[in-house]
TrEMBL record:
Taxonomic placement: Bacteria, Bacillati, Bacillota, Clostridia, Eubacteriales
InterPro entries in UniProt: PG_synth_SpoVB, Poly_Biosynth_Transport, Polysacc_synth, Spore_V_B
Keywords assigned by UniProt, alphabetized: Cell membrane, Membrane, Transmembrane, Transmembrane helix
Membrane topology of the entry: Multi-pass membrane protein
Extent of the signal sequence: none
Protein name: Stage V sporulation protein B
Subcellular location, principal: membrane
Amino acid sequence: MINDDFYKNSFILTLSNLSTAILRFLFSVVLSRELGSEGLGLYALIMPVYDLFCCLICGGMVTSLSKETAKYYNKKDYANLMKSVKVSFVFNLIWGLFVTSIFLLLCPFISKHIIQDNRSIYPLLAISPALILVALSSLFKGFFYGTSKVKIPSIIDIFEKALRMIAIIVLMRIINEKSITFTVTITYISLTLGELLSFILLFFYYKHNRQRLSKGIISEEHTRSKILKSILIAAIPLCINGLLTTALSSFSTLILPRRLILAGITYTEALSVIGKFSGMALTIVFFPSFIILSFCTLLIPEISKYIASKDLIGMERRLRQVMEISFYLGMINMIICIVIPNQLGIIFYSRTDIAPYIVFLAVNAPILYLSSCTYSILNGIGLQSKVLINSLISSVLEVVLLFVLLAKPSINIYGYGIAMFISNIISFVMNFYFINRFYKTKFTLKENLIPTLICAICLNISLIIRNYFTFMDILSKTVVIVILGFTSFIFITVHIKKNLN
């Protein structure tokens, strides 16, 4: 039986992701105040383009290299492990320089014809150096995840997010210019500076940890071409999947203002609505997803270890734990957002007009969290082709729904949430079908009775606090309800872990 370090490493990574999520959340608050809702909308239109090129440069490499290094690390085959990192570095460097050059050449075209806002040209140029930095950093992250040294990239992520926030505040104060073009450009310059710091620190700690892997078993050394082929075989389907889904996601984001205009909203108002819906409400609702990200990051190398040791019973138990925990995290988060949407909007963004968006998006949380972890499970058991097909189907469906729903005046921006909800349900159903073919599983009412009761109790107590504790101010009520919610989640997690061990 594999030593159960999964929860220990997940806890470490969750603490890191909590820190980065808080910094990211504070960053979004700073952005909302520095950029305004219109500037935040323009920022949101540029980010998908950056994500698309990041995916083209290094999509699948973190996952693929973490699986490869986990395989060699468990065998103490350090020679092939280090060769995997080196050959991946050279490949990503060459490929990254090529793609970054193409991106620079395409910036004017992207700004004018794709984003269709000439103010985006300077932010696009500002973010271009980050592409090559992300490509190289992804390899070191894959190395650390595969060798179960999750603390290093976790702590570095915290420093990166902190630098980004400090940089944007300092630059905004030094150069007193408040135009949207300038503020959005400064925001993306801060992102590039953060990626530079991340790369430098990851490289330094990689060099330090590499020296500790000098001794290991004597094994048959694989050629560089064979190792690269093995990595790319796993990475390319993930890259294609990420590229297609990111392209569709980018297209979805870019059509938002155009379809909203057809619903009778001006372009400026459309950017403002997008900023409030996706830049503010969505950030609040999906803030706890850092916990799911921790599970998903570690689940793929964890599954590789179970398969290598032929411990299928242990693997099945782990997968059920992750799926149940993901679902109930979404339930607790949904309860909090539905009970105190006004309070969350006021405390974090000083706005009362995003409360309806928070409530509407909160319904997505349980199924979105569950769907996200099923993609990692499929990747871990080697069904990358199914990941590609399923995510492509759900992404196309989301684009079609957005195209139809956003232009309806009675629905407008709410079509974004409807499309997200339906596509995530379809994703989960398709993913679970293939997971269930790999191993038979079932979720009984008896097993889920206690977690469901905890959720119900949490909901009722939260409503009582909101409605009857008149002696408490808004901040105090919010803090108490959030603590209650996540205390409930801890009890649920402990119960699930104990029940399935």
